[in-house]
Each structure stands twice: as structure tokens, then as C-alpha cells.
UniProtKB/TrEMBL annotation:
Its EC number is 5.4.99.-. PANTHER family: PSEUDOURIDINE SYNTHASE FAMILY PROTEIN-RELATED, RNA-BINDING S4 DOMAIN-CONTAINING PROTEIN. InterPro entries: PsdUridine_s_RsuA/RluB/E/F_cat, PsdUridine_synth_cat_dom_sf, PsdUridine_synth_RsuA/RluA, PsdUridine_synth_RsuA/RluB/E/F, PsdUridine_synth_RsuA/RluB_CS, RsuA_PseudoU_synthase, TruA/RsuA/RluB/E/F_N. Keywords: Isomerase. The keyword ATP-binding does not apply. GO terms for biological process: pseudouridine synthesis; rRNA processing. This is Pseudouridine synthase. The keyword Isomerase applies. Belongs to the pseudouridine synthase RsuA family.
Amino acid sequence: MSRTILFNKPFGVLPQFTDRGTEGSARPTLSDHIDLPGVYPAGRLDRDSEGLMVLTSDGRLQARISHPKFKLPKRYWAQVEGTPDEAALKALREGVTLKDGPTRPAKLQRIEEPAGLWPRNPPIRVRQSVPDCWIALEITEGRNRQVRRMCAHVGHPCLRLIRAAIGPWELGDLSPGAWRDAPQVRLTR
């Protein structure tokens, strides 16, 4: 029987079970938090990003979640430097052209800091002279560091990035470093 879990990846944790970095490095990995044989990440989340990862023992489900052809939506909360004006928000909504090509349009809106948000360790850098704000974005791609690159492209680099949902699965009140069994869902399309 297959198993699928939801994990709240803390900042600084590699999104894999082993560290293939330099010899002697001791970077934290998924194995520091999850001791379940046979489950593997369905997609990635950068080491300096936080939030929801789905891990599963079902290879077909893993492919369905991570392959861009299925366009499974991924929702993020991004704390960005500055306050994006309507032109910047419109550019993100319509899609921007990055070095690796144009992005699909993003759904997005400005939001208040998400309720119940845990403190990041280490904290983000704060500049007294530059405000920051939160935006919620939903994309249907998953290119390398895509949300960070999109925000930087419109002049508002990410200070903190948290994945809040993947398709039907939501982070909810899952604490950083914790996991739980995922509710069974049927993905369509």
C-alpha cells in the first residue's frame, strides 16, 4: 500500500535524504526529520525556502505532482523587499520573461503576514529604510528558483519564501520540521 505524507521543510534543510555536497559537510536533510522507508519527495523546494513538501511511495503520484505537463498549482507566500506597485503585480500576473524563457501567468495578491507564521531561524535581514510586504502567488510551473527569480525580475527580491500548498494539499498548522499523513485525494486532469 502506498503512503503519502506532508512535510513542513524548515529553512536550511536540503530537500533530499542525503547530502551530496562536499565531503565532511553536515547540512541538514530530510533524513534529519523523516524516518520512513520508501517515501520520496515529489518535487523540490530550495534549501533557503520553507514550507510544504509532499513525499510519497507512489511513483505515479510522484510524477503527477512534480512533472510540469500536469500544471499542478503551487501556492507560495513571499515576503518581498519593497512594496510592489500595480505595474509589478500586473507583470507577474501576465508572466515575465526570465533567462530561461517566459513564465506562465501567476495568480497573485498582496496579503497581510500569514496568521500563525513561525519565526524563521535565522531571521531575515531587515533594512530600516526599505519596507517589505507579503504577496501570495500561485504558479503552475516549477522551474529552478522560479518565484524568487520572478519577484527579483520586477524589482522586489524575496526575503522569505514559504510554499503554502501543492494542488489539494495545504500546509495548514503543520509546524516546521513536522510531518503528517496526507489525506487521500484524487488528482484530475
